[in-house]
Amino acid sequence: MQTLDTQALVLRVVDFGESDRIAHLLTPATSRITVIAKGARRSKRRFPGTLDLLHLLAVRIERRRPTSMARLDQARLLDAGTALRTHPARFALACYLVELVGRLAPEAAGGRDAQQLFAVVGGALRIAACRDPDLRLRALLELRVLAALGLRPELRRCVRCGRDVEIGATSGAVAFHVAEGGPLCPRCVHPADAVLPLQRGTLRALEQGLRLPFDRLDRLALGAQPTAEAHALLARFLRFHVGFELKSERFLDSFLAVERTRASA
Ligand SMILES: [Zn+2]
Fold first, then answer.
1. 228 Cα–ligand 1 center, Å
2. Three-state SS letters, the chain
3. What distance in angstroms lies between residue 201's CA and the mean position of ligand 1's atoms?
């Protein structure tokens, strides 16, 4: 890359030295890219009002040498995410999704995967901006983002033999093996396996959630138990396969806990 003109979502911004800022951006051309914004800290006229979390920008990025950090040359604000910022719980969900992407998206990887990831994150943030979050919405959006990152749990096939766990199902429950990232069929599950019992309907609903357009996710029925199961599955899956807690998770949990208390009051 010499010069790249593209849209970019701001994932993270940190001050660097006395006068610069470093921004982590998500673009449809590069997936995640780290850029240095020279003079952004010292001068208010360089990149005014652009380098802020969740901002959607039109940027020009330059890289002079293959080994050097890319440099942000120009940035114009396209969308400040105002709808997210004025609503703390929606903002918390957006921060959580963006942190997930910032930690897991590959650095400087182009192609269709990068375009797809950018589109999915944009779609998820648009929904997050206009819905009050609950565990259901969080699970559905989280799963979509994980899938776009190439990290989704298997939801249909036994991870040991490849058999569809729906075939010959004798009960509604299925054993989900967190470490192996998917369900085990009755033939493959061993009494010593540490598994999370889930209803088949929960896996089916999550699979549907992956296929629906974002604006139709509301139509996907997910009751209280499947929602709790989906949340437990994704929380354990992330903990195991990602191996860290996201900083924004507690912030988000505090809102969702408030919502749950209100709902049961
Ligand atoms: Zn099996």
1. 25
2. CCEEEEEEEEEEEEEECCCEEEEEEEECCCEEEEEEECCCCCCCCCCCCCCCCCCEEEEEEECCCCCCCEEEEEEEEEECCHHHHCCHHHHHHHHHHHHHHHHHCCECCCCHHHHHHHHHHHHHHHHHHHCCCCHHHHHHHHHHHHHHCCCCCCCCECCCCCCECCCCCCCCEEEEECCCCEEECCCCCCCCCCCEEEEHHHHHHHHHHHHCCHHHHHHCCCCHHHHHHHHHHHHHHHHHHCCCCCHHHHHHHHHHHHHHHHHHC
3. 18
Going from the Cα of 176 to the center of ligand 1, the distance in angstroms, rounded, reads 11
More reliable by pLDDT, 189 or 110: 189
Question: pLDDT band at residue 265, thresholds of 50, 70 and 90?
Answer: very low
Residues of each domain in the chain carrying CATH 2.40.50.140: 3-81
Q: What is the pTM of this model?
A: 0.90
Q: How far is the CA of 260 from the centre of ligand 1 (A)?
A: 36
Distance 241 CA to ligand 1 centre (A): 21
pLDDT in tens, 191-214: 999 999 999 999 999 999 999 999
Instruction: Reply yes or no on domain 3-81 having CATH 2.40.50.140.
Output: yes
Separation of 204 CA from ligand 1 center, angstroms?
Answer: 17
